[in-house]
Amino acid sequence: MRTNQPNPFEYGRELDSGELVDRVDELGTLKATIRNRSKLFLIGPRRFGKTSLLSVAADQIDPKEVAIVRINAEAFETLDLFAQELTSSAARALRTPFERANEWAQSLLGRLRPKVTMGAEGLSVEFGLGEEQDSLQTIVEALNALEHLAGTHEKSLVIIIDEVQELILPTGLAAEKQLRSAVQQHRHVGYIFAGSATRLLHEMTNEPNRPFYRLGARLFLGVIPRADFSEFIEQAFHQSEVVITADAVMRILDHARDVPYNVQRLAHETWEMARSGAITPPIRPTDVDRALTRIVGQEAPAHAALWRSLTTAQKKALKAVIEQDGLSLHSHAVSQQYGIARSSMQRALEALEVRQLIRQNLEESESHYLLVDPFLAAWLAREQQASMEWGGS
């Protein structure tokens, strides 16, 4: 292995098309949605590569045909700032001339006291909002104004909102109703609503009495098939002239519970240890175990802080998720084993899900909870084992 060779396993950033594993069908669906100016809900847990998939889909569309705005609702401290950035980004994407943009803003966004300026990044729209302003109504007015603006251009506009649940959570059903009333009438703007609050988005789009029911198609982002992921891992090691056994590849997938981010990170660490000489190829399952131990050590401060932030009931519920493989957690037997009432278990699981520490596997009919970060289980096992050893010494 050349010492200056880049690590083939990337994590923690948006991947490009050549780095995606599988996802061919999902990518095709997203591109068709953009080209057809349709509406789609992309639902998938954190660490499954939603953002990378959205980025690749957008990059593969001709910008002369479709103006695409990608915006992450989680990145803004207020919904008002989100609405401002959305409006500004769309006006820039449509290459709207300053005078035309100013006239449009004053005409359709007058109540928000818009100010259109030109800066280093191009055209920008700011709202002169007071504290009494309804932030959700601001978003609705911005979306309606963008529908009108898109109708005056030859090319389509598609808005991709990542972590869309951030627009919904503050007011719940009221937000769903207001957003639905606006978006369902739009003909010149397509939408992709992406989110990691899987159960919330599933309920919003699946229940007939909810406003978002049948507003658009749904695409659930599941795990990457093991055959594809194992082939990718083997080829990446092989191209680096590092021998890895088939059992070691399976150990990577097992430890990571097939979560794409965790698979890439564990493979990345294993590869780095081989480059440094800490591991001598051929790489075996025990070598992967050592790489996981190193990652657990790196993440220990964050995991410890997280653990301390939990209530006693939440700690018991999280431990039950790990030790019971997330199954039968509402049973009397599990409640007795962990010393927590079933009602308290339910509330604790809901709280852990809201904090996105656990998720429900929507692909199964039986209630099945999984860790969002599988490596948390390894950290907890290490800490509690160390505590028992210390207590017994």
Instruction: Please tell me how large the radius of gyration is.
Output: 24 Å
- Which structural class is indicated by helix and strand composition? alpha/beta
Order of helices and strands: HEHEHHEEHEHHEHEHHHHHHHEEH
Task: Kindly state the number of beta strands.
Answer: 9
User: Looking at the structure, what is the overall shape?
Assistant: globular
CATH superfamily of the largest domain: P-loop containing nucleotide triphosphate hydrolases
Q: Which ranges are low-confidence, i.e. pLDDT below 50, for 5 or more consecutive residues? A: none
What is the helix tally?
16
Query: How much β-strand is present in the residues?
Result: 5-15%
Ends distance? 44 Å
Number of domains: 3
**Major beta sheet, strand line-up:** 2-5-6-1-7
CATH architecture assignment name of the largest domain: 3-Layer(aba) Sandwich
Instruction: Give the overall pLDDT as a whole number.
Output: 93
Could you characterize what this model shows?
It is a single chain. With 393 residues, the protein is an alpha/beta fold. It folds into three domains: 23-220, Rossmann fold, CATH 3.40.50; 226-305, Helicase, Ruva Protein, domain 3, CATH 1.10.8; 310-391, Orthogonal Bundle (Arc Repressor Mutant, subunit A). 52% of the residues lie in helices and 12% in strands. The protein is built from 16 helices and nine strands. It has helices spanning 24-36, 50-59, 79-93, 98-108, 135-151, 165-168, 173-183, 198-206, 226-239, 246-256, 260-276, 285-308, 312-323, 332-338, 342-354, 375-391; strands at 39-43, 66-72, 114-119, 122-127, 156-162, 189-195, 217-220, 358-360, 369-371. It has a five-stranded parallel sheet with strand order 2-5-6-1-7, with helices on both faces. A two-stranded antiparallel sheet has the order 3-4. Strands 8-9 form a two-stranded antiparallel ribbon. Strand 3 (114-119) and strand 4 form a beta hairpin. Helix 13 (312-323) packs across helix 15. The mean pLDDT is 93.
